[in-house]
Amino acid sequence: MNNKGKHGERKKSYQKRNRMLLLFIILAMVLVYIICQKREDETYATTTSASIGDIIDIVESGQANVSRYIVYGTHLNLEGSLDITNPEIEDVKIAIKKASGEETLVDTTYEYENGNLSFSTLDKINKGLDLESLEETNYYVLLKVISSNEQESYYSLSNDTEYSDPIEYYTLTRNNSNNRIDIRFLTQNSASAMALSVSKIHKLPNDVYDVVIDPGHGGNDTGAISGSYEEDEIVLENGLELKKKLENLGLKVLITRDGTETDEYDTYNIYDEDGRVTMANKSGAKILISLHMNSNESDFVDGGVEVYAANNMDLTLAKTFADNIVDEADTTYSKMQTDKVENGVYVRTLEVNPNSSTFRGYKGIYDEVPYLFIIREIGGIATGAYVNGSNSSYGENIYRNSNVGVEGYLIELGYMNVNSDLRNVVNNGDLYMQAITDSINSYYKIR
Ligand SMILES: [Zn+2]
């Protein structure tokens, strides 16, 4: 009996302890749930944006009109004009101003004629304002005119473009963290101002990536062939390796094909929903790396690496890719001279007659645009993406008029028909991909 009684008491205290434990577990689960919810919320947090009232005191009464504003890669660029009389202009800048007054200046090219000042930061489409460098707060984007008597005048910007939606920009992932930047025009009565709101988030939205890797060709398109080697297979294997390496840096990476594709070429139609151009444009990524192997049927027998980029852009990163690949993968710069800008760096444009060309539906192009479709068609208006469906065999790029573009690089790793090149890429592809990874890491200061 005694024992039984004792036993019963012990049982009661067990039950009590179990109930406490259960309660504790439930509480802990609720706590974890709340924290997770909070994190989810923070992912999509809308920033508190400043109001126009904050800057009304520092700006002049006239406003500048913005005729183009573009985010290409990691940079914001704009151009526009201001009506202003007898200004005796010494210099013109774009000022990115915090509410506290602190400002960052972006160089512009400008011209003054008959009371009209035109300005542009678009000289290099991947320069301008570095969105990656902005601290977490609100900013105004203002035109700053410095007169010869050192007087400084600020003008707010109004939107004179066809773009009305704010741009949602996400900085590259560093230490599991990103900034979200909302780029928008605020209006209040007849006043207008361009503003940036920067806020920290803890996770990129599901459909937003840092980098896109595009292994060239695929499906029934093998690309170049040499003996039993096919270009599409070599670049796919390397693309998957590059994805792993960039993910090890903490970057979020999208790959345009992974080898599960069928032989139906349509699957890889570049403008289809799951086509490479559409995938890149929808990715929110800042940079795309397209991997290819070169080949030349003529008597050109030298091998080596060629990095292609858009015209009108700063080529520092392109040069970094070429230099690092030559160093780390023990290869050479290509000796090909056509379209060469620097050792290993190439820029090729369409150079078609705007009035007569129907090349791939490009009739009516008014300017030089990149020759390589992947660089051109992912850049929106920054690169003159133009395929409008008028040539039915090439489909339509619905992102051709976008003012947000992905900075594109196409890397020809080596020549399929040059034995030393082919052997080096097949055996040491890892070193090429490490060189690309190191370039991205140092250029964007990821780690
Ligand atoms: Zn190719």
Describe the structure.
It is globular and about 70 Å long. The protein contains 6 helices and 23 strands. A hairpin with a 4-residue loop joins β3 (89-98) and β4 (103-107). Strands 1, 2, 5, 6, 7, 10 and 22 form a 7-stranded mixed sheet that branches. α2 packs parallel to α6 (419-443). It has 2 domains: 52-201, no CATH class; 211-443, Zn-dependent exopeptidases (Aminopeptidase). It has 447 residues and is an alpha+beta fold.
Write a compact overview of the structure shown.
The protein has 447 residues and is of the alpha+beta class. The protein contains 6 helices and 23 strands. Bound molecules: zinc ion.
Index terms:
447 residues, alpha+beta, Aminopeptidase, seven-stranded mixed sheet, seven-stranded antiparallel sheet, 6 helices, 23 strands, disordered N terminus, binds zinc ion
Strand-helix topology:
Blueprint: H1 2-43, E1 64-72, E2 75-83, E3 89-98, E4 103-107, E5 109-113, E6 116-120, E7 129-130, E8 138-147, E9 152-155, E10 157-159, E11 167-170, E12 178-188, E13 191-201, E14 211-215, E15 225-226, E16 229-230, H2 231-248, E17 253-255, H3 276-282, E18 287-294, E19 306-308, H4 316-328, E20 340-342, E21 345-346, H5 373-377, E22 404-405, E23 407-415, H6 419-443
Parallel strand pairs: 1-10, 1-22, 14-17, 14-18, 18-23, 19-21
Antiparallel strand pairs: 1-2, 2-6, 2-7, 3-4, 3-8, 5-6, 8-9, 8-13, 11-12, 12-13, 15-16, 19-23, 20-21
The chain binds zinc ion.
